[in-house]
Each structure stands twice: as C-alpha cells, then as structure tokens.
Amino acid sequence: MGKSAEDQAIEFFIKRAQLASETADHHVRDGEFDKGAKLYRQAYGFFLKAQKNHPDDQELAILLQEVKKKYQDSIQKSQASTN
C-alpha cells in the first residue's frame, strides 16, 4: 500500500525545507545574506509544518533549531554589511 496523503505532505515539506536551506547556504557563502535569510525563513516554515504532525521527532526539532540559527546569523551579517 502507498503512503498516505499526510505522509506525502510531510515528506514534501521536509524536502522543500532542505532545498531552501541548501540554496540559502549557497547565497550566504556568496555574501548574499538577505537572499539567504529569506530562504532560511522559508525552510523554517516548511520544517515547522512537518513538525506539527510529528511533534516528538527529535531530528526535525534539531533541523528547526539549525535553520533558525542560520537565519539569525544571516540577518546579523546582512545588517553588519549594510552598516
């Protein structure tokens, strides 16, 4: 039997979050902190949607915290580069 619609949605959210986070990493490496921050924020939102269906998933909780930290760091770097 195939995956349920809920499982497919969660899988989509996780894959989409990973893609946004990886793309953000590239932008931050290139010094495009605003673009990186925007993508990290998107990634956080997708990981959050996935976690709502699996609140006890420690791996998702760790990914959420990592993306949140990357977002905060890119915001700080963006502000520092404009000052």
Assign an overall shape. elongated
User: Which residues sit in consecutive blocks of at least 5 with pLDDT less than 50?
Assistant: none
In the CATH scheme, the class would be Mainly Alpha
The first-to-last residue Cα distance is 57 Å
Largest sheet, if any?
Answer: none
Range of strand content: under 5%
Q: How many extended strands?
A: 0
- Tell me the count of domains: 1
- CATH second-level architecture: Up-down Bundle
Radius of gyration: 14 Å
**Class by SSE composition:** mainly alpha
Provide the succession of SSEs.
HHH
How would you sum up this structure, described in words?
- The chain has one domain: Methane Monooxygenase Hydroxylase, Chain G, domain 1, CATH 1.20.58.
- The relative contact order is 0.16.
- It is elongated, with a radius of gyration of 14 Å.
- The model has no long low-confidence stretch (mean pLDDT 93).
- It is 86% helix and 0% strand.
- α1 runs antiparallel to α2.
- The protein has 83 residues and is mainly α.
Helices and strands in order, then pairings?
Layout: H1 5-29, H2 33-53, H3 58-82
Helix pairs in contact: 1-2, 2-3
Can I get a quick summary?
With 83 residues, this protein is mainly alpha-helical. It contains 3 helices and no strands.
Task: Write out key terms for the chains shown.
83 residues, Methane Monooxygenase Hydroxylase, Chain G, domain 1, mainly alpha, elongated
